[in-house]
């Protein structure tokens, strides 16, 4: 942890150290364990659905599931409206599939994964 600390900023360093300690304690609680499981489940969902071999078969329901699972979408109370708005503003699911395919193909090429 010392590599994260800055000389001359002892109060900031103390606060950061305290926050890290509190976060480590939180991770050991039932709520922390639940939070970690949610992250793992979300990652599995994204890996399954946002896979270049699956994009052509991406359904509206799967797209909706992804959008609704994003932390950024928590500010909307009506997540169905949000999903519809994203679909409408991007020309529908076909355009979203195409954009995702292009993104995933670029990622694959940049990372040198020729699968």
Major beta-sheet overview = none
Distance between the termini: 38 Å
How much beta, percentage-wise?
under 5%
Question: Low-confidence spans: pLDDT under 50, at least 5 residues?
Answer: none
Count of folded domains: 1
Order of helices and strands: HHHHH
Could you estimate the helical fraction of the residues in percent?
Answer: 55-70%
Task: Count every helix, treating DSSP H or I runs of 4 or more residues as helices.
Answer: 5
Shape summary: elongated
The total count of strands amounts to 0
Structural class category: mainly alpha
Mean pLDDT: 90
* Gyration radius over CA: 20 Å
Give a written overview of the molecule.
There is one protein chain. With 115 residues, this protein is mainly α. It has one domain. The chain is 68% helix and 0% strand. It has 5 helices and no strands. It has helices at 10-27, 30-49, 60-69, 79-89, 93-111. It is elongated. The model has no long low-confidence stretch (mean pLDDT 90).
